[in-house]
Specification:
- This protein is α/β, with parallel strands linked by helices.
- The protein folds into two domains: 61 residues, no CATH class; 161 residues, 3-Layer(aba) Sandwich (Rossmann fold).
- The protein has twelve helices and five strands.
- The protein has a five-stranded parallel beta sheet with strand order 2-3-4-1-5.
- Helix 7 packs across helix 8 and helix 8 packs parallel to helix 10.
- The longest helix is centred in the first third of the chain and has 28 residues.
- It is elongated.
- The termini are far apart.
Amino acid sequence: MTIQLDTKLRQLRLSGMVQALPGRLAQAQGGQLTHFEFIDLLTADELAVRADRLFLRRLKQAGITEIKDFSEFDWSFNPRLPRVRLCELASARFIPQKTNILLVGPPGVGKSHTVTALAIGAIRAGYRALVKSIFALANEFVDAEATDSRRELVEQLSTIDLLILEDFGMKTLRSSAAEDLLDVMMRRHERLPTVITTNRPTEDWGKFLGDVPAATAILDRFLQHVEIIVMEGRSYRLGRRLSTRVNVAQAAPSDSTGAQTTPDHALAAIDSESEPPESPVTGLPNAAHVSIPPTNAPPRRRRDTKST
């Protein structure tokens, strides 16, 4: 009887019920469940399995390989971070409001961890998300042009519930990247929210996008409905390396006077991996002031200099 029911459930693709069936039958046979409770719990088991599979599938589609949320975030390292607001954003309530998010701050303060938490929060709320580095996206557009699949790529980026673009301003992109991004932003404008992380002020976007008119048009749409969050603080990565150096020094053997000594090669290895402290990002936009170039502004002409 159980084998026949198991086969029928598998034919109906009710694998969650198949997994839970032995346990629920034991409960029912023990007189602990009514007929209604048995069916209700078995149905709930199936829905739970489907929800878990959907969550994992959407994580993969979003490009998330490691689950990071704010439950494991070290808020004490950078106490100036807007903890309450970031946690509110992770609830995904900004998505139906169609509000764009701009996260601005130097490298290492937690922008990548934050956008991963936002994406996971959106997926848990039933939305689809996509996290992309701006470099990877630019390369994907080049490949799409070569394989005649640009339309499919634009359609994917334009219809995803939450699009997250990381690393704006890390390096200059080819001019065609700005045109491709403008195409996507025009389609998403006032329809679906976009999250962008950057360590550069908006005044510089025309430079690293390589196309001032396109950057102006992108900003004009993106900043119309945007919440700007400035993330200030020290680099988590550099902090971990400095902690490693302290631990090595503390674990070093003592000399004859009792002072601890650290092998030169160990300190050299740590020094070679250390990064200089990041200089503070100046001129960052905030909620009260965002500089937007004029929509009809022509591209700047480079003044030629001649040696005399």
